[in-house]
Amino acid sequence: MVLRLPHPRRSATLLATLATAAAVAAAQVPEPPPEAAYWERPVWPAALPAVVEPAPRADDRGYDVLHYDLDLRLDPTAGSVAGSVELTLAFPAGRPPDTLVVDLDEPLAVDAVGWDQSPTTLARAGEELRIAAPAGAAAGAVVRIDYHGHPQRHGAYSAGMLFRVQGDSPQVPIGPTVLTMSEPWSAHAWWPCKDHPADKATVRLALTVPDSLTAVSNGRLVADEPAEPGWRRTVWETGYPTSTYLVAVLVAGYAAWEESCDLAGGPLPLTFHVFPRHEAAARFDLAPTCDMLGFLEDLVGPYPFADERYGQVEFKWGGAMEHQTCTSLGSVVLRGDGRFRNLVLHEMAHHWFGDLVTPADWPDIWLNEGFATYCEALWLEHEEGPAGLRRRMASIGPGQHPSLFEGEGLLADPEPVLPNLLVYHKGAWVLHMLRGALGDDAFRAFLRDWVGSPQRAYAHATTADLVRVAGEHAAFDAAAFLDPGCTPTPSPTCRGRPAPSRPPTAARA
C-alpha cells in the first residue's frame, strides 16, 4: 500500500473530513429523490467537505487555446499521473503576453517547460504557472509542459482526478478505477490548462494504463495498442471545441458494448462501458438512450457531435457528469429499475445545453442546469402527457421551495455556483414561464435558435444573450419578463400567455 499524505494546504481539512464522515454515517440521512439536481453533482450530505479554492482568473490572459495534446501515464496503485501537455496557442494581439498564465494545482510538480521546442523560464504562484514568453515570439506557439505528481482532492466537489476501487469500500476492493470530475474549475487539479469554460479547444488524450484496464475519454478512439510489458496505450481525440471541465478520463476493468442509433442525420455510434457486475442493470436503465436522443433532436435540433459518438461510462461517483460525448454515470444510479432515467436524459440534454453552448462564465451556470432540468420535464410530458409535466414542475417548484425561491439568491450569479438547487429548479421554472408566454411553437423556435446559431454553437453565451434571443421570438418585452426571474425576488406564477402590450414578469413562480 502507498500512503499519500495530503498537500499541506489541504491537511487542515483532514480532521473535519473524518468528523463529517462520522456525523453523516451516524445521522443516517435518507436518500434524496431520484432527481438530477440532487444526483448530477451530489448536493446532499457528503462524506468529504469541499476544498474551497478561488476560481481561476476570468480574463482572456492574452491568448486562446486552439488544441490540447495530453500524453499521460496513470498508475492506479501509486495514485499518480505523469506526462506532458502541449498547448497550441494563438495570440489575438499578434504577439504573446510577456507572461503566459496557465493553471495547475500546487501539489503537481513541473519537470520542464518548452516554447516552440525551446526551454523557457517558469515561476509558480499558487495555482498559476507563469511562463516567460521568449523575445520575438510569433503570433502563435506550442507550449509543452512536462509534469508529475499525486492529484489531490480539489474544489466544490472535493474531486479532480480520483484513484479509487470499484467495490463499495476499501475492505471489499473489486479492481482499481480512475475517474475525473472537474466541474466547475478542477481540471487544473490534474492537468495544466487554461481552466475557464469560455476557452474551448480540440483535445487529444493518450492514456497509458495497466493492460488489465480500459481507458475511456472524449471523442473517437483512434489507437489502442500495447505499450511496455503490463501496460496499454489508448488514444482518444475530439475535433469539436471542448471546455476544460468537460474533458474526461475514466479507467477501469469495464464490460463494454456498442449500438447504433438511427437519427435524422444518419446512424450515431452509441458506446457503453460499465463495471461488469452492473452490466445487466445498466442495459435495462440505458435502454431508452436512442429514443431519448431522437426526442431531443426533434425538440432542439441535430445531435451536435454526430461525427464522433454518444458514450455512457460508469464511474465510482455519487452522481453523474455530462462529459462531452462521454457522459459519466455514477455506480449509485445504475439500479436496474429505471428510476434514474430522468438523469440519463438530463446528462444527454447537456450536450446541447452546456457542451454545445457553454456558459461564458460560471455565474451563468443556470443556462446549463435550467435547460437540462426543463428537458427532463419535457421528456415526462412526451412520455406521460401533461400530467407528467405538471407533476415534475410542481415537484421542483412549490414541492421543494415552499417560498417559491424567495431569498434563495440571484439566478444569474448564484452563490455558490455549485452545488446549488436554485440553478436547476428556478432555471427550469423561468424557462417554463417563457414557454407559457411565447406559446409552444415560438418556444420551440427559440430553443432551436439558441443552440443552432453560429454565434453560440460550439462557443459560449450569457444570460444577456438569452434575454436578447428570447426577445427576437416574443411579441412582448422579453427583458421585462425575464429580468425579474434572474433576481432574488419570489419566482413566477404561471398566468398563461401575455398580451403583447402587458407581459407578466418571471418574478413570481
Please explain how this structure is put together.
- There is one protein chain.
- By secondary structure, the chain is of the alpha+beta class.
- The chain has 3 domains: 64-251, Sandwich (Immunoglobulin-like); 255-351, Zincin-like; 362-486, Neutral Protease, domain 2 (Orthogonal Bundle), CATH 1.10.390.
- Helices cover 25% and strands 28% of the residues.
- It is built from 12 helices and 22 strands.
- The strands form 6 sheets. Strands 5-4-8-2-1-11-14-13 form an 8-stranded mixed β-sheet, with no helix packed on it.
- Strand 1 and strand 2 form a beta hairpin.
- Helix 5 crosses helix 6.
- The longest helix is centred in the C-terminal third of the chain and has 19 residues, at 366-384.
- It is globular.
- Residues 1-9, 11-27, 43-47 and 491-509 have low confidence and may be disordered.
Keywords:
alpha+beta; Zincin-like; disordered N terminus; Neutral Protease, domain 2; 509 residues
